[in-house]
Design goal:
Protein name: Homeobox domain-containing protein
Helix content: 25-40%
Keywords: Coiled coil, DNA-binding, Homeobox, Nucleus, Transcription, Transcription regulation
Strand content: under 5%
Structural class: mainly alpha
GO molecular function: DNA-binding transcription factor activity, RNA polymerase II-specific; sequence-specific DNA binding
GO cellular component, one term: nucleus
Largest sheet: none
Number of strands: 0
Organism: Glycine max (Soybean)
Length: 283
DNA sequence: CAATCTACCGCAATTACCTCA
DNA sequence: AATGAGGTAATTGCGGTAGAT
């Protein structure tokens, strides 16, 4: 279901959850998302939360009801208590349904996930969220310490949530499922970012080490060249200095003419940093 | 059985609000 | 009081997947 598709690449250990989304289809089909002047949310027999009351929500026409791209109008109402705020405002209230089809889907999904807020309340909330002064201030919920702690704890157990877990957590936190979902998304992103930073630091260190090694080898090469000029041309090589390539098993340091050009011809190096551990690379 | 449609989900990128120095 | 930076909630758009037709 795509839950774990990126688990390996992101370094996360995701739990494969059994999705119930197939049954979430309270859809009023539309061919053009932007043509949604009227959003109807209706229950179906496949509704995953049968204990809830069916709801019917009507949205206003888009004409004369301009909604900005970011749908900021929906969060107009704000109060000091984040919980109260989360109850009063709906990040995906019906207003959102007028912008994109995607949001419409979200809204419908929300409508079955979060039925404790009934349709009428949400409509009135939407109306109360409507701008009276024309400003579109997107107010931001601030999670309490308790909420953050619980979310964090839950994230440690599983970095992704199936719909049931999301619903349960949202109920427990007195948040909307969508808010829980968003929190987990952002949390995963932060984790990934942090991991990327760690990886970046590691690669930087590797780079520094390799640069040092390169510098050292260059210096050594210069010394050897100088040494070669100072010494006789056909100087017999001590057997102890011969090394064998572990990959191709050729004996280094023994060329046809006995000259000393092979990288394996010299005494073993005190240290060689090879991050790729590929002995054949030297051949 | 293949093609198409639809709904859903996760992610990346971005926006925008809020807090704090 | 003003302001810039950082944290983060929220939005948007896209791609992938699965079920239905």
């Amino acid at each position: 279901m795509g839950l774990d598709q990126d688990a390996n690449s992101s370094g996360l250990h995701l739990v494969l959850g059994l999705s119930l989304t197939a049954s979430v289809k309270e859809t009023a089909p539309s061919t053009k998302p932007d043509d949604h002047h009227l959003c109807v949310i209706k229950p179906t027999p496949t509704k995953p939360y049968p204990s809830k009351e069916p709801s019917l929500t009507l949205g206003l026409s888009g004409k004369g009801y301009h909604v900005p791209r970011n749908n900021v109008a929906i969060n107009k109402v704000y109060c000091e208590d984040p919980l109260e705020f989360s109850r009063q405002t709906s990040p995906h209230s019906v207003v959102s349904s007028f912008s994109t089809g995607r949001v419409i889907k979200r809204e419908r999904d929300l409508s079955c996930e979060d039925m404790e807020v009934d349709a009428e309340e949400r409509v009135s909330s939407r109306v109360s969220d409507e701008d009276e002064d024309g400003t579109n201030a997107r107010k931001k919920l601030r999670l309490t310490k308790e909420q953050s702690a619980l979310l964090e704890e839950s994230f440690k157990q599983h970095s992704t949530l199936n719909p049931k877990q999301k619903q349960a957590l949202a109920r427990q936190l007195n948040l909307r499922p969508r808010q829980v979902e968003v929190w987990f998304q952002n949390r995963r992103a932060r984790t990934k970012l942090k991991q990327t930073e760690v990886d970046c630091e590691f690669l930087k260190k590797c780079c520094e080490t390799l640069t040092d090694e390169n510098r050292r080898l260059k210096k050594e090469l210069q010394e050897l060249k100088a040494l070669k000029l100072a010494q006789p041309l056909y100087m017999p090589m001590p057997a102890a200095t011969l090394t064998m390539c572990p990959s191709c098993e050729r004996l280094g340091g023994v060329s046809d003419n006995g000259s000393n050009k092979s990288p394996f011809s010299m005494a073993p190096k005190p240290h060689f940093y090879n991050p790729f551990a590929n002995p054949s690379a030297a051949c």
